[in-house]
Amino acid sequence: MKFAKIRYSKVKGEIMKEKISFKCLPAFIILGVVTGLLIGIFKKLIGFLAGFMDGFLATGKTDDKLLFLGLLILIGLLTYFILSKDKNTKGSGIPVMTGMMEGTIAVSSEKTIIGKFVASVLTIGSGLTVGREGPSVQLGGLAGDIVGKFFPNVDRNLFIGSAAASGFAVAFNAPVASLIFAVEEIFRTHNFSTFLSSALTIISATVTSGLVFGDHPSLENIPAFGNIDQKSLALIVILGILAGLSGALFNKVVIGSKSLYKKIALPELVKYLAPFVITGLVLLIDPRLFASGEELIYLPSEGNEELITLIYMYGAKILLLALAFGIGLSGGSLVPLLAIGAILGNIYGSILADLGLIPVEMIYAISLIAMAGHFSAIVRTPITAIILILEMTGGAFSNILALAVVSFVAYLVAEIMKSKPFYEDLYERLLLTEKSS
């Protein structure tokens, strides 16, 4: 039994048809199991290190604070050594994976997967404002590349892309959103073979991770909200505009930080350690800014913060992410951009509540809706954004119409602002760097 396979090359603009044997399909199930275990262990180690580092901040003791700062610098030195040995371990990893699939970047998967794993655990777990999803996608893609070498008659891109999508699935426990992400961002095309290989890998990875490490949504204990009244959709349209503008600002600041770092005339090691030292000092003053910011999503359910504090947190998280992302630390941006989107929604919802336009309890719903808009504006995958929020909240949040409105309005605003899609911009910059070197 044979299935037609179509591979789309964004560089050459070609579509090639090949055949994939039914006998190869179990390989994608095995690949899913491997990816589920790999990313599951990855998440656990990050959580363990983050808890360890956060423990020093929680005591409030001077000695523990100094030890925390010292450990951050040590982690910076260790990860600098790893990244200097293999440039493909830098950054989120998704552009590198795209280059692997398009044949524009040469990667030694067996070498890179080890360095990426270790560097990402250390960087993300240390408390810097970076997320786990980009490295999870790259680690999955690297695992797929390794497995694909055992099946020379099958286009290796099927293995790389399917495993990359499964890394996204395990990172967020969002299999459906990951399948759509594979279509919208990874393969950039759809046919039966890409669907079948991705579905098999994603499902087996998600099931494996759930059985071994526990099956629970990324955002737990989210209360069930009533649907947003259609009469209130005008407020959601305004939120979509704000999310689109924020997304354009996010891309400008975060990606623009890469150009800024290149202009700074300092030794590379000094520039590399700067995010660890500066973030460490900021965290000593305000531990609430620790790590990617997932905890900030829960602010509306925990008594919330003053409006001025929310505005400060919004700006601080963008700058801390830019600080880490610009120099190419091994970490992603999706979790921070979701957290920043939630803060944006919290600000907007708090203003609406102060004006008496919504009840206070709806601020939380507005912040969750804003996450989808922010994701859509930055990454330009609106359908993934909608489904991702539904799955991250375990189905407790079901305002699909509001999620759709904010996602598509934010997408449109970002397009009008001529803000490049986040990963497309990063990939173009990576290609320029490859050509210049």
UniProtKB/TrEMBL annotation:
Ranges in coiled-coil conformation: none
Transmembrane segments: 20-46, 66-83, 158-183, 195-213, 233-250, 270-286, 307-327, 333-351, 363-390, 396-414
Cellular localisation: Membrane
Molecular function via GO: voltage-gated chloride channel activity
Pfam family membership, one: Voltage_CLC
Keywords, in A-Z order: Chloride, Ion transport, Membrane, Transmembrane, Transmembrane helix, Transport
InterPro entries with a match to the protein in the record: Cl-channel_core, ClC
Bilayer topology: Multi-pass membrane protein
Any one annotated GO CC term: plasma membrane
UniProt-listed PANTHER family: CHLORIDE CHANNEL PROTEIN (PTHR45711)
Protein name per the record: Chloride transporter, ClC family
Organism for this UniProt entry: Anaerococcus lactolyticus ATCC 51172
Lineage, highest ranks first: Bacteria, Bacillati, Bacillota, Tissierellia, Tissierellales
